[in-house]
Design brief:
Elements: H1 8-47, H2 51-85, H3 93-132
Helix pairs in contact: 1-2, 1-3
Length: about 160
């Protein structure tokens, strides 16, 4: 079947698939940009040791990752439909979008690695601080410690 043999419905279907595929790729690219921004802000929060902000950024990060995976679940079958409907024909924007996505994925992975290393170094410093803490009560006896003058029997008959 050549391009001229296609019915208007088939052409409309192919155009709809292409548009939806492009929209999803753009949406995923936007989500990766959001994720990268969150990771960059998270690095700042790690450096400033702002625990509450780190927790909030982690929650946002998890939400964005979930959205990215949801979009990817739709993109994969749609891409297969696109390739099946358009063998040998490629939209000029699709390769550019895929290249942008690959670049953003690499940036996200790199930033995530930086954040992990930053967290590791801060955890090491915190562990050293905890180990070096001196317990001011370590050499003192507790007021509740036995001094040898405690009653061994109590008269409850009265």
């Amino acid at each position: 079947m050549t391009r001229q043999d296609l019915t208007q419905d088939e052409v409309d279907q192919r155009v709809a698939i292409l548009k939806r595929f492009r929209e999803l790729l753009e949406e995923q690219r936007t989500k990766f940009r959001e994720y990268l921004t969150v990771l960059e802000k998270q690095a700042e929060m790690i450096s400033t040791e702002n625990i509450d902000a780190m927790v909030r950024h982690t929650e946002i990060e998890q939400s964005i990752i979930s959205e990215i995976f949801t979009i990817q679940k739709v993109i994969d079958p749609l891409e297969a439909m696109y390739r099946e409907a358009n063998p040998g024909l490629a939209d000029a924007e699709i390769p550019k979008l895929k290249t942008d996505l690959d670049h953003l994925k690499k940036e996200v992975i790199a930033q995530n690695g930086k954040n992990r290393e930053l967290l590791k170094s801060h955890m090491t410093v915190l562990r050293q601080q905890v180990v070096s803490l001196k317990n001011p009560y370590a050499k003192r006896t507790s007021v509740y410690a036995s001094d040898g003058h405690t009653a061994s029997r109590v008269d409850i008959s009265q």
